[in-house]
Amino acid sequence: MKIAIICDSFKESLSALEVADEIEAGFRLVWPDVVCVKLPAADGGEGTVAALVAATGGRVVRTCVTGPLGDPVEGFFGVTGDGRTAIIEMAAAAGLELLSPERRDPLRATTRGVGELFCAALDAGCRHIILGLGGSATNDGGAGFAQALGASLLDDSGREIEAGGAALTRLARISLDELDPRLAETRVDVACDVDNPLTGEHGASAVFGPQKGATQAMVDVLDAALSHYAGRITADLGRDVASVPGAGAAGGMGAAALAFLDARMRPGVEIVMEALGVAEIVADVDLVITGEGRIDGQTVRGKTPAGVARVARQAGKPVIAIAGSLGAGVDDVYGAGIDAVFSTMQRPGSLSEALAEARSSLRRTARNVAMAIRLGSGLGA
């Protein structure tokens, strides 16, 4: 029997590759000679760099960049094995996890470091860049990102505006005269799994601001600032980004990608599945195993298991998903091409216990799945 194991990480416990290794080990307890094609995957968020680097034989490049509050941080990006494509996770330079809760301040937080990663990728010779949005501490509409790439965001005195979302209220003019010329020959795909507009009740500030430390008063300031920013983008660049689905992603970074890069916004899982060549892999196997830390009703909205299942269904291959836990709405995945779902939870317990036992629980669950398939269908016997 030949199986493809295409899983995301189990957050806080196992990387995507470790998940695949444990599933393989469990299957080999039933079928010692099983042929496993293991493909660490992601959906455009955390782990996307690791997944694409591992799958393509690429490398991770580390470089010091500006952190969300201006302090230097060690950022990173990936380069695929052919050296042509860079993968950038926005959170590596502007992530919420880079700041303790008491330091989070979306009025001042900047995306400049993300732009610096972009420049480093261009310096490395990459002319195709995949930018993963999500997990940001920022609400500056990607203004710092644009400034790092050479765009001028000027106040009434002709000076560059300060860092942070609040400073956008002082934006008087945008100029692209000094924008990095290499961007003209660079293709940018933005991995974006939300469809929020830039402003309003469903916009970046109202929906995502509170988790970044914004009070209601701050949300009002930030929303007004982004509205003004959108107006300047329209006036100076001729682009209407205010209501474009996804423009509000990652504190408005989606808007910057559209306005300054002419980027293509795509579901993250779609980008990753394409980059990994999943369609070719699943066409040549008997069974597909996928999974992530939690499977629930949100899984069908662009998560890795749903993306894998969509490709597998087109090839007519059965799909089994394994998750650390199952949540509300899990039955929705059956309509998305997943044939069966299994949880690794063996008994009631605390989260810390589940994380500590993740490796052995996953291997045991994979072994049980393999035996159930063998007993029920004779597949691979």
TrEMBL record:
GO terms for molecular function: glycerate kinase activity. Transmembrane segments: none annotated. GO terms for biological process: organic acid phosphorylation. It comes from the Bacteria. Keywords: Kinase, Transferase. InterPro entries: Glyc_kinase_flavodox-like_fold, Glycerate_kinase, Glycerate_kinase_RE-like, Glycerate_kinase_sf. The keyword Disulfide bond does not apply. The keyword Transferase applies. Belongs to the glycerate kinase type-1 family. NCBIfam families: glycerate kinase (TIGR00045). This is Glycerate kinase. It comes from Acetobacter nitrogenifigens DSM 23921 = NBRC 105050. The lineage of its organism: Bacteria, Pseudomonadati, Pseudomonadota, Alphaproteobacteria, Acetobacterales. The gene is glxK.
